[in-house]
């Protein structure tokens, strides 16, 4: 499990330590951690540090400070290091340490003509030549800053130190930093791109948790140029520098994962104290690379997580497995309403996945043709043409392949109104959104849209006056966490938003031990939750567990994310497979409120619906790579599900 937090949450945690004057110690621990990863990347490429070259892109704040200190440490280790300063300021102590270690300092200018000072034009190669020629150890070692017992530099500490950046801000003092930056050798975008390209390692220390918006100006141009070249050269099979990001990839929002401008996609990111939300949700996650969280001493002061990342090992550990006393009923019966004459395959794929995920029993409701096809593939499925209120199940799955078929659509509607928990997928999503006009759904109803389907849900909600405007698919893709939360808040349902990273948002306030960092405004007029207002006759079902759970309030949101799925999942039918898996785990947790407690206290009570959704998405992701990286047609995926769960 990775607990991810916002930048603001991290700042709150560090504040008491900054007040005690420990800012420099924090930065040094961060820089040491960053250095370790950089060294590992360099050694992986060259075997040794000597003779390797690194370029550090340095921003104006403390993220740049971390980068400069790491550059100094790398230099002392024998790496030729060039710093490219991207702002008009740079962290004072970091810059001094870097210089004293023998690092070469350049500053990025818009172009050579506009740049000033020596080397503004025609001398762009100067820094690179200096760096390449810098002898390891030159200016390093004894010339470095003194450190205290914790490894913190005493050099430069005191007034205006790291801890004062939000009050006095050493990076902004008028005397040395601005002058030091101005004195650095200018390098234009093309020259800097050459520097980067010639390096073995690029360290991205432009912006961290203090960023607002994406990269701007020359550094944005530089990153764009570098990424274009990386794309071209990757296709040509040429070498490329490794990229390590300091804290978070510059231009990715630590709080939301949004990346409004160009970003330098990292091979690895080293973050400090806690993962940030932007590491575990799209699109930020896709730029992050391998994530390392380095302890810097703020860990005991951290507040609650904004997003819990459910990892694959969590899925395998928490997946509900039968015990000797279990029966098929205690494990959970899943009712399925899926398929229509034009999409018969969906019924086959979701029932097959549910069976392979270990459902106690799968009951399929549909016409004779659909039943025959389901039975051909999965003879263990119990099939009938009953209506949902006629059968006794622990949970429902409704919607896959339900298009243009009135009798299946009527069953879908009955499932939406039923008291039991349900996965509402594909053809059930519009009907679920429409039903919100009458009553909120409750967190035991799990909506499973992709971005396009969520956009349609917002159209319905907008049509009912429940939100101010519709939301385009591209807006959702740019900030999926936000829109999943909004959808959960407005519908009252658990929302699983599909994509390269799956995010899950659930309007849960009652899960023990859970206090979400995120608090959205409550809707102006609270409307009744369907789970309280009734629906199906409770007597028709013994599945009352969800009704016993405390009703959720709309002002808190449990947020989870799941990654690691193969992009080969982007194929028609893999959503049907996911839906079947989700149904199986929902049917199990329906009457086992604490079944997923192993994930954390937040996964109990009402939190179990989101937890179950995360488990299902995690198993789906595991199945996508069960036999390596390659095509996984949904029928293979369903088989893989069973393989993943089978212990040798
Ligand atoms: N938390 C901890 O415990 C520890 C934190 N540590 C480190 O501190 C980092 C946070 O440092 P930070 O607060 O100085 O912010 P940071 O990200 O360097 O940038 C702020 C500067 O950038 C500027 N700027 C903003 N947006 C911009 C844009 N779009 N484009 C261009 N410029 C932009 C903005 O200037 P402004 O625009 O406001 O004039 C401001 O000067 C954190 O990520 C971690 O690496 C470690 O040392 C270990 C301990
Ligand atoms: N690029 C990707 N990387 C990883 N997983 C993906 C990617 N694209 C789609 N997926 C996953 O594949 C599934 C596709 O679901 P969906 O779009 O509903 O497909 P369908 O409706 O055709 O069955 C989802 O679980 C989604 O998260």
| Associated small molecules | ligand NPW, adenosine-5'-diphosphate
Radius of gyration: 28 Å
Alpha-beta classification: alpha/beta
CATH architecture of the largest domain: 3-Layer(aba) Sandwich
Short description:
With 648 residues, the chain is of the alpha/beta class. The chain is built from 24 helices and 20 strands. The chain is elongated, with a radius of gyration of 28 Å.
How would you characterize this protein structure?
By secondary structure, the protein is α/β, with parallel strands linked by helices. The chain folds into two domains: about 1-110 and about 175-305, 3-Layer(aba) Sandwich (Rossmann fold); about 315-510 and about 555-645, Ribokinase (UDP-N-acetylmuramoyl-L-alanine:D-glutamate ligase, 3-Layer(aba) Sandwich), CATH 3.40.1190. The strands form two sheets. A twelve-stranded mixed β-sheet has the order 9-1-11-20-19-18-17-16-15-12-13-14, with helices on both faces. It has an eight-stranded parallel β-sheet with strand order 5-4-3-2-6-7-8-10, sandwiched between helices. Helix 14 links the parallel strand 13 and strand 14 (about 380-385). The two termini are about 25 Å apart. The site of ligand NPW has 30 residues, from helix 1, helix 2 and helix 3.
């Amino acid at each position: 499990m990775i607990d991810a937090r916002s930048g603001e949450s991290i700042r709150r945690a560090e504040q008491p330590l900054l007040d005690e004057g420990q800012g420099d110690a924090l930065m040094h621990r961060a820089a040491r951690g960053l250095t370790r990863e950089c060294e590992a990347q360099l050694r992986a490429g060259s075997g040794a540090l000597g003779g390797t070259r690194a370029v550090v892109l340095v921003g104006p704040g403390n993220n740049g400070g971390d980068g400069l200190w790491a550059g100094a440490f790398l230099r002392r280790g024998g790496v030729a290091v060039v710093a490219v300063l991207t702002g008009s300021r740079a962290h004072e102590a970091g810059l001094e340490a870097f210089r004293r270690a023998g690092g070469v300092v350049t500053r990025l200018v818009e172009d050579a003509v506009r740049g000033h000072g020596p080397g503004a034009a025609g001398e762009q190669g100067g820094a690179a030549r200096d760096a390449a020629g810098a002898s390891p150890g030159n200016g390093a070692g004894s010339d470095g800053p003194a450190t205290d017992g914790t490894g913190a530099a005493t050099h430069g500490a005191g007034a205006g130190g790291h801890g004062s950046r939000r009050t006095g801000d050493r990076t902004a003092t008028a005397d040395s930093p601005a002058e030091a930056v101005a004195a650095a050798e200018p390098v234009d975008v093309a020259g800097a791109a050459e520097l980067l390209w010639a390096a073995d390692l690029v360290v991205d220390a432009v912006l961290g948790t203090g960023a607002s918006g994406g990269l701007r100006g020359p550094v944005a141009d530089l990153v764009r140029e570098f990424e274009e070249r990386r794309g071209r050269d990757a296709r040509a099979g040429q070498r490329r520098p490794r990229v390590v990001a300091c804290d978070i990839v510059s231009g990715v929002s630590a709080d939301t994962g949004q990346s409004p401008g160009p970003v330098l996609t990292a091979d690895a990111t080293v973050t400090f104290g806690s993962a940030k939300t932007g590491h575990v949700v799209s699109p930020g996650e896709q730029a992050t690379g391998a994530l390392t969280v380095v302890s810097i001493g703020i860990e005991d002061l951290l507040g609650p997580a904004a997003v819990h990342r459910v990892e694959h090992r969590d899925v395998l550990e928490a997946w509900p497995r039968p015990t000797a006393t279990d029966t098929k009923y205690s494990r959970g019966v899943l009712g399925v309403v899926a398929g229509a004459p034009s999409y018969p395959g969906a019924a086959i794929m979701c029932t097959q996945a549910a069976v392979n995920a270990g459902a106690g029993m799968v009951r399929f409701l549909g016409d004779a043709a659909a039943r025959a096809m389901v039975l051909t593939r999965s003879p263990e499925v119990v099939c009938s043409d009953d209506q949902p209120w006629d059968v006794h199940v622990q949970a429902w799955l409704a919607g896959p392949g339900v298009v243009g078929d009135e009798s299946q659509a009527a069953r879908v509607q009955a499932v939406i109104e039923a008291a039991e928990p349900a996965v509402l997928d594909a053809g059930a999503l519009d009907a679920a959104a429409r039903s919100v006009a009458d009553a909120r759904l409750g967190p035991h109803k799990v909506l499973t849209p992709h971005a396009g389907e969520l956009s349609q849900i917002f159209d319905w909600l907008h049509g009912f006056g429940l939100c101010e405007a519709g939301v385009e698919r591209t807006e959702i893709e740019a900030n999926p966490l936000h829109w999943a939360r909004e959808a959960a808040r407005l519908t009252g349902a658990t929302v699983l938003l599909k994509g390269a990273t799956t995010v899950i948002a659930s309007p849960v306030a009652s899960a023990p031990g859970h206090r979400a960092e995120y608090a959205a405004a409550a809707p102006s007029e609270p409307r009744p939750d369907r789970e309280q207002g009734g629906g199906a006759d409770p007597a028709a079902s013994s599945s009352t567990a969800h009704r016993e759970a405390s009703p959720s309030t709309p002002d808190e949101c449990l947020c989870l994310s799941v990654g690691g799925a193969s992009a080969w999942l982007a194929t028609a039918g893999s959503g049907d497979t996911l839906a079947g898996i989700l149904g199986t785990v929902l049917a199990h947790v329906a009457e086992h409120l604490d079944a997923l407690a192993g994930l954390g206290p937040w996964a109990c009570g009402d939190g179990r619906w989101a937890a179950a959704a995360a488990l299902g998405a995690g198993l789906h992701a595991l199945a996508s790579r069960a036999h390596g990286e390659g095509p996984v047609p949904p029928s293979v995926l369903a088989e893989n599900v069973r393989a993943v769960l089978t212990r040798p």
